[in-house]
Amino acid sequence: MNSLTLPPYLNEGDKVAIVSPSSKIDKSFLKGAKKRLESWGLKVVMSKYSGAASGRYAGTVKQRLSDLQKMMDDPEIKAILCSRGGYGAVHLMDALDFTGFREHPKWLMGFSDITALHNLVQFNGFASLHSPMARHLTVEPENDPSSLYLKSILFGELPEYSYRRHRLNRQGTVHGVLRGGNMAVFYGLRGTPYDIPAEGTVLFIEDISERPHAIERMMYNLKLGGVLEKLSGLIIGQFTEYEEDRSLGKDLYGALADLVEEYDYPVCFNFPVGHVTNNLPLINGAEVELNVGKKTTELKFIC
After folding, report:
1. pLDDT tens digits along 199-250
2. Secondary structure, 3-state, the chain
3. Chain centroid to CA 249
């Protein structure tokens, strides 16, 4: 079990870039995110095509690639906020050059479709931040917990999360490397070099607009592929905006609980991560302690 290299934490006055590697975004959210980051004492650099549009995407592949590569290469940029998810990050994966990034590593932030880039960054040996993005930073108030946790992590103050128990939880305490994100996105990278390694991993999963049987099918892929049996722990987050058609004969959490019943590692359900307001930022690639207890679930970063 080896945690990945954490990029340097930020200091007041550091430069942070906003890029749009996936779907196009309302420019008001770019302005809002810039304002919020500046309120934290950071200098914000808006990438050239962050507000561009090409069909559903934030610019052409060439434009999105150029923006992200430029910010990865710039030694003065200490963190990169991806403005939104949607779809499109996978277009860039096999063309990005990590030469400059390795010399000057920086935090990559975002979630949903940005899971593909998290996997790529981890493949290259670095941790990254599964975190809220531009819309969240714009519409949520200054005291929004997820935003404040993101700020704390960036400046090197690592939170300890505690959340109420769920009836389906399986108790236990384990150490492992935290990895995961949007299930459909990392499922799409199965069998590639950017797949999530299973051994020693505390896996967290979330998704939006996927029907229960589709999520179960993906989980069976992890089961039949030998992934689930090798995990150290499992964090089941929020699955939102889907029709609960009861086609599985039970709710989604119940079906997932049955699917992992044979394993002896701790499992927690309903963790606050995903396409929800309470989307706790998680350090992808960090060593963690997961304690699923009788009354609460606790997650601590060991960095």
Report:
1. 999 999 999 999 999 999 999 999 999 999 999 999 999 999 887 767 778 8
2. CCCCECCCCCCCCCEEEEECCCECCCHHHHHHHHHHHHHCCCEEEECCCCCCCECCECCCHHHHHHHHHHHHHCCCEEEEEECCCCCCHHHHCCCCCCHHHHHCCCEEEECHHHHHHHHHHHHCCECEEECCCHHHHHHCCCCCHHHHHHHHHHCCCCCEEEEECCCCCECEEEEEEEEEEEHHHHHCCCCCCCCCCCCCEEEEEEEECCCHHHHHHHHHHHHHCCCHHHCCEEEEEEEECCCCCCCCCCCHHHHHHHHCCCCCCCEEECCCCCCCCCCCCEEECCEEEEEECCCEEEEEECC
3. 30
pTM of the predicted model as reported, rounded to 2 decimal places: 0.97
- Residue given tokens 């994966």 in the structure block: 93
Q: Smallest Cα–Cα separation from 269: which of 292, 288, 249?
A: 292
If one counts the domains in the chain, the total is: 2
CA distance 6 to 125: 9
Quote the domain boundaries for residue 34.
15-154
Using one digit for the tens of pLDDT, what is the confidence trace for 237-284?
A: 999 988 776 777 889 999 999 999 999 999 999 999 999 999 999 999
In a domain, 5, yes or no: no
Of 133, 154, 175, the one marking the end of a domain is 154
292 in the same domain as 187: yes
The pair phi, psi for residue 262, each rounded to 5°, is: -75, -15
Tokens of 113: 């479709």
Question: How far apart are alpha carbons 166 and 261 in whole angstroms?
Answer: 15
Domain presence at residue 206: yes
Identify the domain boundary among 154, 180, 199: 154
